[in-house]
Prior knowledge:
Blueprint: E1 2-7, H1 15-22, E2 28-35, E3 42-50, H2 53-63, E4 67-68, E5 71-72, E6 74-77, E7 110-112, E8 118-120
Antiparallel strand pairs: 1-3, 1-6, 2-3, 4-5, 7-8
Amino acid sequence: MVKLFVGGFPLEMTELELVKMIGPHGDVETIKIVRDKKTRICKGYAFLEMKDRTGAENAVIALDGTPIADRVLSVKINDDFVKKTPPPRKSFGYGNNTNRGSGNRTNNTRSYNSQNNYRSNNDQSPGVDRPRRPRKTM
């Protein structure tokens, strides 16, 4: 199957009218007119799948650049429908993400104690743990 992009047709055109226009050049398998999600108004372009490449090429030769109403029809073979691999993700300052979320702390970190001040983990004095609040229930 070959995918076609058809653009520039009148917004009032239906799927059936589009198939009738492209059908004589080759067998149309599927058609999808792109519409606005909220208003359901046609955006003026569609994607078609045709059975064979010769039919798609015939449609492009015959219909590309054809004026319809006050618009010019654009028909292109879409060879770019192969899924592309996304670029690699960035670490955003976490380095290579090996220790992320492991709970291991270095000696330079600080923790909170009950006197509302911070103490270093290097301090040998035992801090009094802060009591936890009870969970809110709904």
